[in-house]
Amino acid sequence: MNIEDDEIIVPNEPNANDLPQSVISTSFISVSRVSTVSLDFQFHPISSFSNLSNASTLQPNFRFSMAQQLQHFQDVNFINPISDILVYSNDLVLNTDEPLEIKEKTNSKTHENLLSFSIKPLYDKIQINTSVEIPCIVTFKGDNTDLELIEKYRQGLDLIFVVDISGSMRSGKIGLVKATIEFVITLLKDFDRISIIGFSDSAFIYCPLTVMNEQGKAKMTEIINGLGPTGGTHIECGVRAALHMLADRKVCNQVSSILLLSDGCDNDTRSVNNRIQIAIEEFKPRIKGSYRMHTFGYGRNHDSFVMSLMADLTNGNFYYVENEVAVSDAFANCMGELVALLASNVQVSLTTKNCGIPFKLSKLYSNTGDTIFTMPNVFFGDKKDSVFVLDFEAIQENFIGQKIVPIEAVATFTLKNGEKIRKIAVLELFIVGKDEKVTKDKSVLLEYYRVKGAESLKQIIEFADAGKFAEAREVARISEEEISNSEVVGDPKIQALMKDIKDSKKRIMSKNSWISGGRAQLSSIQNSHFNKVAMSNCMAYQNSMQFKYSQLSKVYIDSIVTTINYPKSHIIQRNFYDTPPQSSSSSPTF
């Protein structure tokens, strides 16, 4: 908030009847603008602290000079005094979630038939007398169902927004985040629930999990409008509050996610990683069902290590939001995944079989590097692939005409209706003579170069983390050259990968460029390409639902910008977009 030359901020005495029972007193002071006149600058503290005995580590201090008070009111964007806000402590019992009747919605197709599982080789034939390396892919493919049907039969969501409301979120940052959450609410139905938690030096629970009917949405709008930045950054406190809420809720919805957004570093960066891991492990046995934590690192100054860690530990995604325009895309991609979910908890086990021909499984591009590994969630209209490589020695002539099965894959996963499924796929290869034509499957080749590029990005990150920037740039150069000479260089996804590898060289020029957004960008991009996940800085892997939500979010945010007159602390500039957002083919209904 900027103070003009002819204006000054003057505090008014708060009305105690308007205040919630569990709040930090200095957060609830109304302000008004008046002309510069003679000043009678008085501060009126709230007298009752009966409910704050063990709720917060903040110590109120009412001994402000005039200059300090002016600075205080410049920096603080005051919290909405309408809602019953709780200052989080471990002693709270958070079982006040609104009741919800869980009903399974089914369509005419069985869920299992909506998902295929297969193995595909680069070559389906092997010529005799030739040593050969064969990349292969393990593929899950989700049915390309109509978007209206996906939304109609989707599962109910429990979403907990954990929003950084520290002082660094002032000006347009918090305004756009608020508008984006409002957009997400327009997508929700009366079988969804959300809660909003803000964190600065402490965590503030603005509401329990609330059903998204008309009344619930109106309540959320009230709360969102009151969010404002103040204080430091205690990430662990926000995480604990969200985990505690998941653990204590009386009813668990079908899909549960924590969406955490921060633009800074924790107050204690040296211990935050360990504290976050302890918190997640502590609540794990108390939380019924599964959940994912999706983290959104805003700007160049956030801690990409801890944001990635939180996502990795809960099988979520880390979204790097480099600038304001990327906020709505990041949330649209996240919501598109949640709504279009088809299968989760995907695990694959590969077994080599004795087929009478010498070979070895020489390379496996998986999250474990082992023959047992997990794969990302699968969505409607989506395809997820893992890559492995087989090396065959020269095959003798007496094998001509035979079919061999060198690999068996067993997959287990949980369908959207909660059903646990086990499927088996085998790799079949045919032995042919030297003169028979062998063709390549370019879809396999594309996935092969995708994971090779993603592996290079991982190596670049490791070198840069160790301060070996010259070595990191050399890895980028070699990878870019190899992919540019491949047969799939013209594919749009490969083009996006090459662009990101080329861009990585700018991010690893020095320690300063690396810590000022470079690491966050490469961590997000590497995850995007390796797991085929759409990010705001890599949209190549969007599924159809994500694309729809991305378009709708731009229309919605643009309408907010053009029709709402934000107070000065909440102004959202139109130049956040390099080009005006594109409207979808039909007008959205909110």
Automatic annotation (TrEMBL):
Domain VWFA span(s) in chain numbering: 158-335
Xref: PROSITE patterns: VWFA (PS50234)
InterPro entries, per database record: CLCR, VWF_A, vWFA_dom_sf
Domain of life: Eukaryota
SMART domains: VWA
Official protein name in the record: VWFA domain-containing protein
Annotated organism of origin: Stentor coeruleus
